[in-house]
Amino acid sequence: MATTGKVIKCKAAVAWEPKKLLTIEEIEVAPPQAHEVRLKVVATGVCHSDYYVLYEDIRDYAFPCVLGHEGAGIVESVGPGVTRFKPGDKVIPLFVSQCGECQLCLSDKTNQCVKNWTVDEKNMESKSRFTCKGKVIIQFMGTSTFSEYTVVREVALTKISDSAPLDKVCLLGCGISTGYGAAINTAKVQPGSTCAVFGLGAVGLAAVMGCQAAGASRIIAVDINKDKSSKAKEFGATDFVNPKDYKKPIQEVLMEMTDGGVDFSLECAGNVDVMRCALESTRRAWGVSVIVGWVDVKDVSTKPVDLICGRTWKGSYFGGWKSVQSVPKLVSDYMDKKIKVDEFITHTLPLEKVNEAFDLMITGKSIRTVLKM
Ligand code: NAD
Ligand code: ZN
Ligand code: ZN
């Protein structure tokens, strides 16, 4: 390619400061270094976790940066030592790496990897291949898909089918895979069971889809936005409950509806109080509750007795999928019509309208907006 080995100048949405709108800038993207791949981003979803880093995370530790971690693109060039990718490959960048060699990758107990970007947080500047106006721009989560081009480590990239539509399967880079896997892999929902999913954004709706795929006989969808009811039913929910319609705590409502609690619950709202409600909505003797919503600046609590009696409280990161090996299979499952993806996309906008995409999400008007480059 004509650009191989050269700096590429392109458009990106830069987050200069926390709690400020992203601005479209021309950035410089350096060539990939050893074991890195540079790709042209074709499309990217906008996830609540991007919004969280910009507006809700009080630590404000990663600015200026380019957000975005739900993208799909085409390899432009590869750095020295890269053997698994070549220019032209269709790929999905991964915010959870899978090096395949570390003690975590070698264990079937986890989808974590010691080479994951989060462990590199202290060296964020040195890991970045982006500059703008003379400043290093952090590549948040090692993905930075709110840019026309990005550089990722080969352990955090996966090759997908040549026929996959990139403006759809980008959502398998985070939200859909996360919720679906949280139900199937982490909760391990059983056939005939009763489930509750709290928070019906893309992650929660994907969790509903996972509960249905696992054979749950009753799926209670819970959201404070009444407009989510019909969408939840489209994804397999049998009941919709709006906590605002009740005076009593929502866990009591669910307990009564199910004669003692659901077997499985999943928290996909990202709120520590909802996490507690989700736990306490499960059957005391054997309920399993999974935390999927992302919070790292507040504590979550419950009474120990609520666990002592037999409940299990778990968390799920990227739906428990070992990323490099699983995402291409999820793409195939979508193309074989085994899982939904198109139904999550309510809006498509150009990169320039990324702030509008955040607004649509936070006001509950969208499920997922896909930004096209
Ligand atoms: P979203 O903003 O699109 O959806 C959140 C939903 O929760 C909305 O429908 C909202 O109305 C609902 N909600 C808010 N408060 C509620 C309450 N008190 N009770 C019930 N429902 C409530 O977000 P999303 O993109 O679907 O992401 C959901 C969460 O998952 C976020 O916290 C995100 O950061 C997190 N996340 C985690 C992972 C992971 O690996 N664990 C990956 C992706 C996203
Ligand atoms: Zn995400
Ligand atoms: Zn690893």
Automatic annotation (TrEMBL):
One Gene Ontology term, aspect cellular component: cytosol
Keywords: Metal-binding, NAD, Oxidoreductase, Zinc
Coiled coil, from the record: none
Transmembrane among keywords: no
GO BP annotations, alphabetical order: formaldehyde catabolic process
UniProt domain Enoyl reductase (ER): residue ranges: 20-371
Record-annotated membrane-spanning stretches: none
Needed co-factor(s): Zn(2+)
Protein name: Alcohol dehydrogenase 1-like
UniProt source species: Erpetoichthys calabaricus (Rope fish)
Gene name as annotated: LOC114654528
